[in-house]
Write a structure and sequence with these properties.
Keywords: Electron transport, Membrane, Mitochondrion, Mitochondrion inner membrane, Respiratory chain, Transit peptide, Transmembrane, Transmembrane helix, Transport. The chain is mainly α. It contains six helices and two strands; from the N terminus they run H-E-H-E-H-H-H-H.
Length: about 200
């Protein structure tokens, strides 16, 4: 026991020391006495956390890296290089020319742009003014037709609700005129399709 008490004086200086704690159980005190003691582990730390917990940043870092790559690496830098090359080769402005006289070939729509780069975009990538106008005219026509159908449908529903109408089936009574018409159609059909067959059978 003196060795254990001597060991306790050095416990604050050790990383994993042992401390003596008396057992307070009444049964163990009566049977064994106060001589039995228990050894428990005590850990001491003398510095701050080395790895502090924090929220994960993997997704945010990947989003920022991807945006920087696609916007700056594939957008701004190639765009600036393309502008420099086009301005160095073709110049910054196009030259004005006289409008062709009658009988000559008229200029194209993309030749009215001011810079060579805008002429290239207007010729091969962007739609022309005529296509733009036709697309919007078609779109407006589609909207007008759809609005007209919606108004007709709303009017029909209003009349159905006002007159308490519902969907039902009806029939026309059969008259003698329809019977005579059916007989004439049957006779014409028989004369057209079976007259040649009956003639061949008679010849045989």
């Amino acid at each position: 026991m003196p060795a254990i008490s001597k060991f306790l004086h050095l416990s604050p200086l050790l990383h994993n020391s042992r401390q003596i704690a008396p057992r307070s159980d009444l049964v163990s005190f009566l049977l064994v006495g106060n001589a039995q003691q228990t050894v428990i582990n005590v850990r001491h730390s003398g510095h701050a956390w080395v790895f502090r917990r924090r929220q994960g940043q993997l997704i945010s870092n990947k989003l920022k890296d991807g945006g920087h790559f696609y916007i700056v690496g594939l957008g701004l830098i190639p765009g600036f290089l393309l502008l420099i090359v086009v301005h160095a080769i073709f110049g910054s402005q196009c030259e004005l020319q006289e409008y062709p006289k009658e009988g000559e070939q008229p200029p194209h729509y993309w030749q009215f742009e001011r810079t060579p780069l805008r002429q290239f975009l207007a010729r091969y990538i962007t739609p022309s003014d005529m296509q733009y106008h036709e697309s919007w005219a078609s779109r407006f026509s589609h909207w007008q037709i759809r609005n007209r159908w919606n108004r007709i449908e709303a009017r029909v529903k209003h009349l159905i609700a006002e007159r308490q109408d519902y969907k039902a089936y009806h029939y026309h009574p059969v008259t003698v005129e329809w019977l005579d018409h059916a007989k004439r159609r049957a006779a014409m059909f028989e004369q057209h399709y079976f007259a040649s067959a009956s003639a061949t059978t008679r010849m045989e």
